[in-house]
Amino acid sequence: MSAYAALTRANYHAYVRDVTTVFFTFAFPLLFLVVFGLIFKGQAVQDGGPPYINYIAPGVLSWGVGNAAMFGVAFTMMHWRRDDILRLIWRTPTSLPSVLASRYAIAVGVGLVQAVLFTGVALLPLFGLRLAASWPLVIPVLILGITTFMALGLVIGSLANTPEAVAAIANCIMVPMAFLSGSFYPGDLMPGWLRDVSLALPLRYFNDGVLGVLSRTHHGSAADIGLACAGLIGFAVLFALIAAKTFRWSNHG
Fold this sequence. Notes:
The chain is elongated and about 65 Å long. It is mostly helical.
């Protein structure tokens, strides 16, 4: 068995054994879907326009998937470094790319399962999400988003030395970004200057990409989706470069 396969298997077993984390990883976005779906049930953004759920469901989905990718790798890297697991791995023939690739495989798997479960619930008559014909394209958009937020998680996991620090940093980033990026309400309702500010946030591009390919709105043009994907790639490269600079094998030098 290769080092990558062994690490991926170990990561998978460690993840599924933590039943509480698994439950809330999948339940948390669904809770927001239920709350916002019921609040805006039967309402449209404009007269005769798409219903709110067509905006809210993609926004909450991208936020939930990005949140899980970022928190998961940030906590894992912090724990592995604090407990000197990374130092032990460093002393073996296992390469750093194998370590990161194994964690990436878990993040992608979790994100795709999240998306299937979340979309299935959003399609129920209670919520009434209507899918666009381009919905299969959500898979590459999700993978780009997971890559971006996992890279951001690597930065946080390299900077923080305790679980409390990881939670504090990650929440300070994700909570304001969710509201500024239009994850919980249509971004079209925000003031123009705030929409311009949101262009500096990776979640804005993740929201736009998922919104454009998944649901029936006026955001599904090739230009909209291309811009969203380009933005995610740019942020993924930026965060990866920062993570490469800040990565540490151990807290003890």
